[in-house]
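Practice problem: predict the structure.
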Amino acid sequence: MGPARARPPPTTAPRRCRDDQRGTAGRDAEPGGAGTAAPRDPALAAPVKRVLVTDHPWPSLDLESQIVAATGAEVVDASGDPAEIARLATGADAILTCFAKIPADVLDAARRCLTVARYGVGVDNIDVARATELGMVVSNVPDYCSDEVADHTLLLILALARRLVPHTRLLGHGGWDVTGTGTPSRLRGKVLGLVGLGTIGRALVPRALAVGLQVLTWSRTDRAVPGTEPAASLEELLAASDIVSLHVPATPQTRGMIGAAELAKMKPTAWLVNTARGSLVDTDALVSALRDRVIAAAALDVTDPEPLPPHHPLRTRDDVVLTPHVAFNSDGSLADLARTAATNVADVLTGLVPATVVNPEVLSSTALRMR
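Answer:
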């Protein structure tokens, strides 16, 4: 077939790849609210389509169920169990995934599946290349949590500056000492180096400026952001920054981009902050750099592996702040995430191209399953 038609601007009526029409109840549904799709006559109903939700870090799938119900589909919850995911994928028309891995063997078994939608920005848990070969549309939600991650990044920087972890541990063990846990650092005047200037990196800039940080940036796209200074190279940024914060996606090119050589280029007083993807940092090299005082501290919302083993050395260091991959999380971001990801699925099930397709080349492929 020819290239699939993309969703037009929202000010125009959507153009469809087929003649049947989809109800709009799902788009206006609110979390916890009742769906408004009209009852369907079982005698006239087509075979039920199934949307497999592999895993979800929130208690209810009511919103997703309302949205896909308007297409005649039902949600099937695998509850994060890999065996259940593999079993249920064989009968799925669409897959919605958060953290669960969707490897080639699961995709190969999903013979009915038209699309794989990610609850989130990165798609490194999905074998996108294999999905493309099989004609599946892969989508993501790129902008639902920019404020949350920018806020969380600043939180981690403040926690390092104010030595929150050693203070908390001291009091948790019954102690009380104003100076025994080290002297906090003044942020004003320090240089924050941003590696990557996507939506989150740009959202962090005004927050950093507000607490007196100077902002140095490096990006492969050479984006200019008011109030910042561009670095000529990553090496220049690493050498000049007091705080290095990572904001790039996980790709084969960025895996391990911060290793022993890069850490050695940083100041011995510098901090490393990562709220992007754990695979960007060589974890063993980071442990060595902290132990040998190559750098002074680290704050991580993401790690590799994730989660870290229970007795991993990063868990117990006073110069490390750890949070369990929660930078994206808020009441508002989760509602936006669920709504948009489910809408991406509903679009494909009714012949529309989602607003954010990760593998656009599939749309002109003869293997494309969406009709």
